[in-house]
Design brief:
Number of helices: 10
Number of domains: 1
CATH topology: Ferritin
Shape: globular
CATH architecture: Up-down Bundle
Helix content: 55-70%
Order of helices and strands: HHHHHHHHHH
Radius of gyration: 18 Å
Strand content: under 5%
Distance between the termini: 40 Å
Length: 273
């Protein structure tokens, strides 16, 4: 589905339209435009005529989406394996653009800073995607040339009914896992001499700490206004959605910077599989 080319004045409508754009170049362009329009004060937080929140997300026809078990793991020691891994990370960043716009369009009635945070996240995710796409194109391939899975958006659908659950399980669970695994991925690229990709991943890691911190901050805000204990609520949600299974090792320093507490990390490590 391609969104209208009209330029809405409501942030919610603008985010909704951008989310639905299929065309890759247009989605990236509109993401930058909307972020600038919000920064300039050209978009209003108008809650009187909200679009109907969609469970769809626009994406290009490729990559082919398959079940995660159908994805072939390739060793990074050869060029195709290296490019396949970069493509997998690029796909995560593309989905993260949609996740950020969905966090805006789906949950009206929150403080203005909430929307400022997630608009900025959308812009940074688009920048990350461009960096990774440049690495793919330098290797003679492009985004869409390898299959991918839809796990991130599937979690967006599962958490669509509640902003608190969304903050807990997308930034504080799925994206926090990215903080854990990125240093090891960087080391693997370093070992094969791909220092340019290492530099790109460092940019992404630094920014993603801030994205997870946004999730932590708004998760705690929502717990506070609902008079729920954040730690109890978080682990209850992990148990409900993941049966309490967590993968380790954790990048403790990055998670602490991203708003986790030492006690939370101790508890998470006890759940590690």
């Amino acid at each position: 589905m391609n969104a209208s080319v009209n330029r809405p004045t409501s942030l919610f409508q603008a985010a909704h339209d951008c989310l639905l754009i299929d065309d890759l170049a247009l989605k990236l362009e509109r993401t930058d435009e909307l972020a600038e329009a919000w920064r300039a004060g050209s978009l209003a937080l108008d809650g009187t005529d909200l679009p109907e929140a969609t469970l769809e997300a626009g994406r290009p026809a490729r990559p082919e989406l398959v079940h995660p078990k159908q994805l072939v793991r390739r060793g990074i020691g050869n060029e195709q394996g290296r490019l396949a891994l970069i493509h997998a990370i690029a796909h995560i960043e593309f989905n993260a653009i949609n996740l950020a716009w969905d966090a805006v369009q789906r949950f009206p009635g929150l403080p203005e800073q909430y929307y400022t945070d997630w608009v900025q996240v959308a812009k940074e995710e688009a920048y990350h995607f461009r960096l990774l796409r440049e690495r793919l194109q330098a290797g003679g391939v492009d985004y869409g040339d390898y299959p991918a899975h839809n796990g991130l958006w599937d979690m967006a659908v599962r958490t669509a009914g509640d902003s608190l659950i969304r903050m807990a399980l997308v930034p504080r669970m799925l994206e926090a896992r990215g903080l854990d695994v990125t240093p090891d991925i960087m080391q693997r690229f370093r070992q094969v001499g791909d220092t340019r990709t290492v530099d790109v991943l460092q940019v992404i890691l630094d920014d993603e700490i801030g994205h997870v911190e946004c999730g932590s901050r708004w998760f705690r805000y929502l717990c506070e206004i609902r008079e729920q204990d954040p730690e109890i609520t978080y682990f209850d949600l992990l148990n409900h959605f993941l049966n309490g299974e967590i993968r380790c090792p954790l990048h403790r320093a990055a998670r602490l910077e991203a708003g986790f507490t030492e006690h939370e990390l101790d508890r998470l490590e006890k759940l590690c599989t």
